[in-house]
Amino acid sequence: MNGADLDKTSAFEHFVDLYCPSIYTAIARLTGLTDKKQLEDLTVTVFIDLWKNSHELFDETRPPALVYKILLLHVFTYLKKEGYEDRITMLQNTLPISPDHYTPILAADKEELKVALLRRLINLLKR
Q1: Sign of the CA dihedral with 4 first, then 10, 12, and 14 last
Q2: Whole-angstrom Cα distance, residue 106 to residue 127?
Q3: Residue 109 reports pLDDT greater than 50
Q4: What is the SS3 string spanning 38-86?
Q5: Is 12 or 32 the better-scoring residue by pLDDT?
Q6: Is residue 90 a contact partner of residue 1, using CB atoms and an 8 Å limit?
Q7: Are 26 and 68 in contact, with CB atoms under 8 Å apart?
Q8: Which pTM was predicted?
């Protein structure tokens, strides 16, 4: 890993520390999930996509907007997959979102990152 990659990784680790509790809680509230394993899986998936878009995330003047967009993509994808159409409708009527947020995104192809993030999330949840 070169210096730029280390800086990017370090910045993302700080980002995970900063946003993990908020993203985990938002997923729980928006989906209604109480199962910790499912919540961890969705949270990790959000962070994986944030990592894949880290160039945009760190260049963004408002990083929370990108976090919100990716978070909603995953929440709506999960709800649609599970058949929670009523909850989707309720969220669409109450959240400031636009239709392009409902487009599913591709699964992460970096298993190594998923494992590392999952370990980190588990450690954060134990605190």
Answers
A1: negative
A2: 31
A3: no
A4: HHHHHHHHHHHHHHHCHHHHHHCCCHHHHHHHHHHHHHHHHHHHHCCHH
A5: 32
A6: no
A7: no
A8: 0.69
SS3 state of residue 10: helix
Q: Are 5 and 87 spatial neighbours (Cβ–Cβ below 8 Å)?
A: no
Structure tokens at 22: 């908020």
Residue with tokens 């520390």: 17
Q: What is the pLDDT of residues 65-99, one digit of tens each?
A: 788 889 999 999 999 999 999 999 998 888 876 54
List the domain range (segments joined by +) for residue 56: 3-126
In whole angstroms, give the CA distance from residue 112 to residue 7. Answer: 19
From 86, 51, 84, 85, select the one nearest 67 (Cα to Cα): 51
Structure tokens at 79: 């709800």
Nearest to residue 109, comparing CAs of 50, 43, 52, 44? 52
Q: Three-class SS of residue 90?
A: helix
Helices 63-82 and 85-94, interaxial angle, to 10°?
150
Number of domains in the chain: 1
Q: Which of 45, 40, 2, 48 is nearest to 21 (CA)?
A: 40
